[in-house]
């Protein structure tokens, strides 16, 4: 019978290091078939912990990648805000409504603040 070659710990294909699997198989041989359930339970628990750690690491990486809008997105929003804000101000002031102009700019500032708060 040829020895099995297990993937290394860095491999995504197998969550438990080969030396631990080998030790579990040896323990099963030494302890006999009546200990098989316990050995399998230990293996599954180790595999579960390794998978959980890998998932947590990947989720953390994804959160870092999605930490907020890019500089280009922020710049585009600022340009659009000015493009909308200036005509709205002109219209509001043309109608003698400084309150409407102030409200428009407050809204624009609020949208920019909410959009960019994820960058911190």
Largest sheet: none
Supply Rg: 30 Å
Please mark out the parts with pLDDT under 50 across 5 or more consecutive residues, or reply none.
Answer: none
Order of helices and strands: HHHH
- How many strands? 0
Helix/strand/pairing category: mainly alpha
Give an overview in words.
This protein has 120 residues and is mostly helical. It is built from four helices and no strands. Helix 3 (71-94) runs antiparallel to helix 4 (98-116). It is rod-shaped and about 90 Å long. The two termini are 58 Å apart. The mean pLDDT is 80.
Features:
4 helices; mainly alpha; single chain; 120 residues; 72% helix; 0% strand
Summarize the structure.
This protein is mainly alpha-helical and about 120 residues long. The chain has four helices and no strands. The protein starts with 17 loop residues before the first helix and ends with a helix.
